[in-house]
Design goal:
Strand content: 25-35%
CATH architecture of the largest domain: 3-Layer(aba) Sandwich
Number of helices: 9
CATH topology of the largest domain: Aminopeptidase
Bound molecules: zinc ion
Radius of gyration: 25 Å
Shape: elongated
Helix content: 40-55%
């Protein structure tokens, strides 16, 4: 009888976890629910309290949780989860009831303080440091080519370097005025900048995102459309052709074979590091930009691709390379030379970056 009373009382009176932010002294209530006699918190409530994100992998019954820049992988219906190569047990399973996921409360009260040293749990209250702002604040825009290197040149003599710069100048204004971020350009005018100096600038500026803007060329004049790349060594033959074209700068303008060898030796190490850390986010940013550009311009969708661009290697941040259209295609050359179309391209890239920033900020801020 006493046992029953205590259970009832807990269910009605104390069945919540207080989450308190240390500096602001703001306290949020995280509601608990009893499932099979065990205290649970609804994942939806957990996410809104901690500003975390969950992604369900339906194929293999997993739930991925991203919090404070870390990933936890739960197996639905199992008490086990993994994080940073270790497995942990909550003793009670992660449950799905209808469309909702439920985490055993012990994950909040006992496991979070284990994983995050700055968290502390006492008296039914989880104390958190005031979150620091990890939002995207600095973006580096890289208008491809410049100076002695015109990039691709159309039949109508439109030069890629001009298109790239104009699109980036519009994009810079939009990002600064509408997102309040700082934008650093690898070049503001028609000058030559070596590829390695472009990513070096991004790293020196501690940039959060790196976007390189280019225009394409192909032997077939019919080739048309927009494509967005992120760094990888795996690729299709099409991607290899574009890669050869863009990397050709090193051979033509930066001193040839010896210089290529230097890039390869140095960047093999660097790119390996970058890939593991930023690959997924670079891929996400590429997807959102590509989607936005295609729907906003009605251009042909050539998709998101992976290639091994020198300019993306060594960038310690999510980085993409955008090919805004084909200068070798007479219709697209005309469009790319049009000031209004250049501004529209910038607008559609902006919308993609904005969407990505919104999601990425949520992942990086607790
Ligand atoms: Zn280019």
């Amino acid at each position: 009888m006493i046992g029953l009373l205590i259970t009832l009382c807990q269910g009605v009176l104390w069945a919540d976890i207080n989450v308190s932010f240390k500096n602001t002294r703001k306290t949020v209530l995280l509601p608990e629910t009893k499932l099979d006699g065990v205290e649970y918190v609804r994942v939806e409530h957990f996410n809104s309290t901690f500003n975390s994100i969950t992604k369900e992998e339906r194929a293999d019954q997993r739930l991925h949780l991203y919090i404070e820049g870390r990933q936890f992988v739960f197996l639905i219906g199992s008490p086990f989860y993994s994080s940073t190569d270790f497995s942990w047990s909550m003793h009670h399973p992660l449950k799905r009831v209808k469309d909702q996921f439920y985490l055993p409360s012990v994950f909040v009260t006992e496991h979070l303080p284990l994983h995050f040293k700055q968290m502390e749990y006492k008296n039914k209250t989880l104390f958190l440091p005031t979150p620091k702002d990890n939002s995207v604040k600095v973006i580096v825009l890289d208008p491809g080519h410049g100076g002695k290197d015109p990039g691709a040149v159309g039949k109508g003599r439109l030069q890629e370097k001009v298109v790239n710069l104009n699109v980036c100048l519009h994009l810079k204004r939009m990002l600064e005025e509408e997102l309040g971020v700082k934008v650093v350009m690898t070049r503001n005018d028609d000058r030559f900048v070596a590829l390695r100096d472009r990513t070096k600038l991004a790293n020196d500026q501690k940039a959060d995102l790196f976007l390189s803007v280019h225009a394409n060329a192909a032997k077939a004049r019919s080739a048309a459309g927009i494509e967005t790349y992120y760094l990888s060594t795996a690729q299709t033959s099409d991607a290899r052709a574009v890669e050869a074209l863009e990397n050709g700068v090193v051979e033509k303008y930066e001193g040839g074979e010896a210089e290529i060898a230097k890039y390869d030796a140095l960047n093999f190490i660097l790119s390996d590091l970058c890939q593991t850390e930023y690959l997924e986010n670079s891929n996400n940013m590429a997807l959102l930009i590509q989607q936005s550009m295609v729907s906003g311009t009605q251009a042909i969708d050539r998709g998101v691709k992976q290639a091994n661009f020198y300019v993306l290697r060594g960038a310690f941040m999510p980085a993409v390379l955008i090919e805004v259209g084909f200068l070798s295609n007479p219709r697209e050359e005309e469009l790319l030379g049009n000031a209004q179309y250049q501004e529209r391209l910038a607008r559609t890239i902006f919308e993609g970056v904005k969407r990505f920033k919104f999601r990425y900020d949520r992942i990086r801020n607790i």
